[in-house]
Amino acid sequence: MGGFSFRNFTFMFIVAFLVWSSNVETCYARRGRHWRQTTTSSASLYKKKGKSHHHNNGSKSKPKHSSPPSMPTNPPRKGYDDVPSSTIFDVRSFGATGDGKTDDTKAFQAAWAAACKVEASTFVVPSQYVFLVGPISFSGPYCQHNIVFQLDGTIIAPVDAKSWGSGLMQWLEFTKLVGITVKGSGVIDGRGSVWWQDTPYDDPLDDELKLIIPLNKTSLRYPPIPLNSSLGGGKMPSIKPTALRFYGSFNVTVTGITIQNSQQCHLKFDNCIGVTVYNFTVSSPGDSPNTDGIHLQNSKDVLIRSSNIACGDDCVSIQTGCTNVYVHNINCGPGHGISIGSLGKDNTKACVSNITVKDVVMQNTMNGVRIKTWQGGSGSVQGVFFSNIQVSEVQLPIVIDQFYCDKSKCKNQTSAVALSGINFERIRGTYTVKPVHLACSDSMPCQDVTLTDIQLKPIQERYHMYDPYCWQTFGELYTPTLPPIDCLQVGKPSSNRIQGDHDQC
Ligand SMILES: *[C@@H]1O[C@H](CO)[C@@H](O)[C@H](O)[C@H]1NC(C)=O
Ligand SMILES: *[C@@H]1O[C@H](CO)[C@@H](O)[C@H](O)[C@H]1NC(C)=O
Ligand SMILES: *[C@@H]1O[C@H](CO)[C@@H](O)[C@H](O)[C@H]1NC(C)=O
Ligand SMILES: *[C@@H]1O[C@H](CO)[C@@H](O)[C@H](O)[C@H]1NC(C)=O
Ligand SMILES: *[C@@H]1O[C@H](CO)[C@@H](O)[C@H](O)[C@H]1NC(C)=O
Ligand SMILES: *[C@@H]1O[C@H](CO)[C@@H](O)[C@H](O)[C@H]1NC(C)=O
Ligand SMILES: *[C@@H]1O[C@H](CO)[C@@H](O)[C@H](O)[C@H]1NC(C)=O
């Protein structure tokens, strides 16, 4: 790959530059700034040695290169005049206190700057400590490959408005890395309750709520989250951050850790290729607004498995630009289920293909498996397999909604994201509102929708209940279903609109 050798060259160049002018931090955790290469130097190229596994207390390791005499003073115990003198970078060695009160952001930045320079280094957040860390970016692109972020302690977010400026899209961010693993038994705690209560009262949380009509009107669907004025200070910005976001990276792994009480989305992958998430936990209250578990966007070759997700919005949300996604062995609930979309908002084009979601247990979720698109979009969703989904007291187990609209009313439009090859198989259990809701576009009916082995029984008498519903949905019933679904139209739509060029993905 051309980019690869270029990256190697760039790395060697940067290291050479460093050897000559040590006070520059090539790659560093930053707050909203970008690395800029300011000067160049015709230094001879530094040849990387084999990895050494010294302890990182800097007591040994004489410099083997003509390195400059004045090294960075922080941290003092780090022997990185001999890059790479170690592969372990413990935030405590860089001045982090881990007392849960002192702002340890700078120590994390310093530890990252050091870890970044060493291939396959380990950035350590030790157990038994609580680190208060503000918004931070663990940024490539000049970092070495295959860094491990070993998280065994707890990282907590600041809860004062001042720390967030006018609002940020994320709290902890990893960008432009190749081979990044976040693992361990640690916890990332967004302490989001100070944000949740700021959600405007009439801000609709999920369009499907419109289908859910409680029989007892006096029981509020979403009781207001109690305000805790002893927490934080000042009003939080209206833009809420994602707790942990990966952007523009290759081969990302997240495992072992827990993310809880995120301000908004818990874990997000954006423009990533090769994502693996397993043995991962999300834990937030069911009424925390917009707290998606895992959010995927413009990412491909994604595997999410063996994880427990409890949150206030979609357990897994698959957005535009995603392909080759495999999600299995997930416990979801509370939450809004597993969704593709919403897609096509504001007349945008969306492309999603080859998505498999199987072996999922959903408990007390709003939706089970769902595809949601806005009117007026273009592009397509092709090749979706929802298989072996066990639902328990789920309001709407099977949903296609091509009229998604989070306002009270949306304009009717003819164009739509085209849906085809959507397979629902072995979806069993209990529902509380409507077993099947398949609402497709008039101008762009859903094609090749198959239903196989659907067994859904009504339970409870808390909501108004409905029969299965289909609109402009074409495909096949491969087995009898419970309840019987006679609204699916067999075969292909007759007046099928030809997909325009602008709809092609
Ligand atoms: C360096 O670390 C090793 C292992 O943790 C320890 O035995 C040694 O005493 C330390 N040396 C110094 C100078 O801190
Ligand atoms: C899952 O992660 C936890 C740490 O959170 C670890 O103790 C456990 O061994 C992991 N289990 C598997 C099967 O990897
Ligand atoms: C309706 O809900 C209220 C509050 O939860 C409860 O006190 C009341 O008994 C309920 N009424 C019925 C008919 O279930
Ligand atoms: C409010 O927050 C404080 C500080 O975290 C906590 O000690 C207290 O229990 C909270 N009160 C309520 C009602 O949640
Ligand atoms: C990602 O990992 C795969 C499998 O280990 C490897 O073949 C591929 O080269 C890696 N991608 C990059 C960009 O390093
Ligand atoms: C679909 O995605 C799976 C991974 O979920 C992958 O193994 C498979 O090769 C993909 N199929 C195509 C046709 O790309
Ligand atoms: C949009 O279409 C729906 C269904 O065909 C119809 O009931 C509704 O009145 C239309 N709304 C507008 C604003 O035209």
UniProtKB/TrEMBL annotation:
Subcellular location: Secreted, Cell wall
Entry-linked PROSITE patterns: POLYGALACTURONASE (PS00502)
Coiled coil start-end: none
SMART domains assigned: PbH1 (SM00710)
InterPro entries, per database record: Glyco_hydro_28, PbH1, Pectin_lyas_fold, Pectin_lyase_fold/virulence
Main location class: secreted
GO molecular function: polygalacturonase activity
Biased composition (Basic residues): 46-65
Signal peptide residue numbers: 1-29
Transmembrane segments annotated in the record for this chain: none
Region annotation (Disordered) ranges: 39-79
Annotated family: Belongs to the glycosyl hydrolase 28 family.
Annotated protein name in UniProt: Polygalacturonase At1g48100
Organism of origin: Nicotiana tabacum (Common tobacco)
